[in-house]
Amino acid sequence: MESGKTSAYRTLAVLFLIWLLSPAVAHAGPSPSMSHIPVLWLFVVVAALLMAMVPLLIRNLVKPRRAAWPFWLAAPLLALLFLIFIGPIIVALGSMIITGRTM
Questions:
Q1: Which residues contact 45 (CB under 8 A, 6 or more apart)?
Q2: CA distance linking residue 96 with residue 89, whole number of Å
Q3: Is 1 helix (H, G, I), strand (E, B) or coil?
Q4: CA distances (Å), 95 to each of 15, 44, 56, 83, in order?
Q5: According to DSSP H, which parts of 22-86 are helical?
Q6: Rounded Cα distance, 101 and 103, in Å
């Protein structure tokens, strides 16, 4: 009876060592699949649209006596600047936070 338990323990010990030393476990870590990138860009586009609303909300708050075209011109320009300069930073930081890797 004792030899059966010993052989089972040895088998478990060998399987544990194989599992412990296997390359899949040795290189385990978060594997970035890049499927989070569209979600991050969607977040950036929504934030850019919200930033584009700022000049229009200011126009409604101030109620200018002159033409409203500067506010309508500032809205897409502000969204475009947000997409160009702030968008990639948000995507890069979000990717680092989600995957745990810094590329």
A1: 83
A2: 11
A3: coil
A4: 36, 13, 32, 17
A5: 23-26, 37-62, 69-81
A6: 6
67 contact partners, CB below 8 Å, separation of at least 6: none
Rounded CA-CA distance 50/83 in Å is 12
Residue 57 is given by DSSP the state: H
pLDDT tens profile 5-44: 678 888 888 888 777 676 655 555 555 677 888 889 999 9
* pTM of the predicted protein model: 0.64
Q: Is 55 exposed, middle or buried (0-12, 13-18, 19+ CB in 10 A)?
A: buried
- What are the tokens at 50? 């919200």
User: CA quadruple 91, 92, 94, 99: dihedral positive or negative?
Assistant: positive
